[in-house]
Amino acid sequence: MQVNNIAKETYQLSVNVENILFEGLWEMPNGVSLNSYIIKGEKTAIVDGVCGWDGVPESLFALLDKLNINPKDIEYLIVNHVEPDHSGWIEAFKKINKNFQVVCSKKGKELLSAFYGQTENITVVGEKDTLDLGNGHVITFTEIPNVHWPDTIAAFDTLTGTLFSCDAFGSFGKLEDKIYADQFSEEELKEYEKDTVRYYSNIVAHFSPQVKKAVAKCRELPVKQIAPGHGLIWREPAKIMDAYSDYADYQKGPARKEITFIWGSMYGMTETAVKHAIKMLEKKDITLHVHQVPKDSWGTVLTSAWTSTGIIVAMPTYEFKMFPPMGAVLEELGKKKVFNRKAFRFGSYGWSGGAQRELDEITTRLGMNWEFVEPVEFLGKSDEEVLSKISEQIDKLVSLVEEAVK
Ligand SMILES: Cc1cc2nc3c(=O)[nH]c(=O)nc-3n(C[C@H](O)[C@H](O)[C@H](O)COP(=O)(O)O)c2cc1C
Q1: Which of 27, 100, 174, 227 could disulfide-link to 16, CB 3.0 to 4.6 Å?
Q2: Which residues form a coiled coil (predicted)?
Q3: pLDDT confidence of residue 167
């Protein structure tokens, strides 16, 4: 929980949240920050807020107190989108301040009524509309729908060049002493990027075409720094804009020279072949992510798959279908539109098989368009012949990935 002066009369109020599943679903090994911003012109505005969970609005009020800001003196609540991780505190705020004006998009107005019964004192803004807070702080608005809720806008302070981008350009990971990306070393940024890709792939990825449009729009603004609703502030805005643009492109593939290897096994028959395959892949000049299901969460698998051009799935047949957690993970990859990957499947069966049929059904139904090399399905344990066939197909897969990313 911290306050930072990030530009003239502009402050970041940040509250870290840990040990929860984001959206009730996604694990966050390093937590997440909920960032609000105060702009103190002649009038005071708060840009986005925090969730309404126990203790979180109170943390925000404590931060306002540190800044000597009485919530009653906040005139504008700029709600870039109504998703409750940023707007949940409105109920608590309304109890303290009865005379504020909400600034949001047309769609945001509908959602505010539905979620918080807020129907009055709302100023609707659209593309290029402005809000003058005095002292030179003229805020202009840009519509970036579906990044990540349909009502999303971004607010740009023309005085300081700060773009308050809401979920766009955000990341998982707590904010600690360093709040700017440029305070991180190359190594630290590489590590931090894992949280950014996790955030992007788990939360925003479905809307990748809209992300592309949003990035293009934001590039047109004279942005000096990007202050997102989650994660670090970017004083070199092109870096995170380029990264988000690349992540959006990965949806349709090809992505990076990486392979995500997802496997599951009941009695070790498939697992023996998995160990052989991993040993082989580790000798290749390609980044490998290995995940066992159901041990590793959907979110973790999705994070790796998002940046991988190649996918290997290894699992046995279970009641005429795939080993169930594999089916669930693949459905999720399909729904997030992890499309056009190079892929390989192998696994053990005991009766009459069936895993392949379900795999084909899921990839076809969800339009995933994965290009598979020949599958290797074996009865019981894997012998030398099976392992050699697996090696052959892995060689083919690696070549396909290398070709795709050239
Ligand atoms: C609960 C259960 C369901 C199974 N269902 C099928 C099936 O529908 N078709 C099939 O060919 N084998 C089926 N098998 C056999 C397994 O696919 C076989 O034992 C395989 O070797 C398991 O590989 P693993 O040790 O990697 O889990 C089933 C086994 C179990 C325990």
Answers
A1: 174
A2: none
A3: 95
How many other CB atoms are there within 10 angstroms of residue 193's CB atom? 17
pLDDT, residue 52, reads 75
Unique residue bearing structure tokens 């159901």: 294
C-alpha 361 to ligand 1 mean position (Å)? 19
pLDDT bracket for residue 401 (50, 70, 90): very high
Q: For residue range 315-332, what is the model confidence (pLDDT) as tens digits?
A: 999 999 999 999 999 999
This prediction's pTM = 0.95
- Which numbered atom of ligand 1 lies nearest the CA of 315? 26
Mutate which of 313, 319, 381 for ligand 1? The one with the most ligand atoms within 8 Å of its CB, which is 319
Query: Ligand 1: residues within 6 Å at CB?
Result: 265-271, 316-320, 348-354, 380
Q: What is the ipTM of this complex?
A: 0.99
What number does the ligand 1 atom closest to the CA of 317 have? 17
Which atom of ligand 1 approaches the CA of 320 most closely? 8
Task: Give the mean model confidence (pLDDT) for residues 90-107.
Answer: 91
Residue nearest to atom 30 of ligand 1 (CA): 318
Residue-wise pLDDT for 276-287, tens only, equals 999 999 999 999
Task: Measure Cα distances from 17 to 5, 127, 236 in Å.
Answer: 21, 32, 26
Q: What is the mean pLDDT of residues 153-162?
A: 98
Catalogue all structural domains in the chain, each as residue range(s) with its CATH number: 2-250 (3.60.15.10), 259-398 (3.40.50.360)
d(CA 172, CA 182): 17
How far does the centroid of ligand 1 lie from the alpha carbon of residue 329, in Å?
19
Q: Cβ atoms within 10 A of the Cβ of 18, count?
A: 10
Q: Which residues are CB-neighbours of 377 under 8 A, at least 6 positions away? A: 346, 347, 348, 349, 353, 355, 356
CA 312 to ligand 1 center in whole angstroms:
19
CA of 354 to the centre of ligand 1 (A): 10
The 8-class DSSP code of residue 133 comes to: -
Which of 42-51, 112-121, 181-190 has the largest mean confidence?
A: 181-190
Order the strands of the 138-143 sheet from edge to edge. Answer: 130-132, 138-143, 153-157, 162-166, 225-228
Q: Whose CA is nearest to atom 3 of ligand 1?
A: 318
Peptide bond preceding 29 in cis form (omega within 30 of 0): no
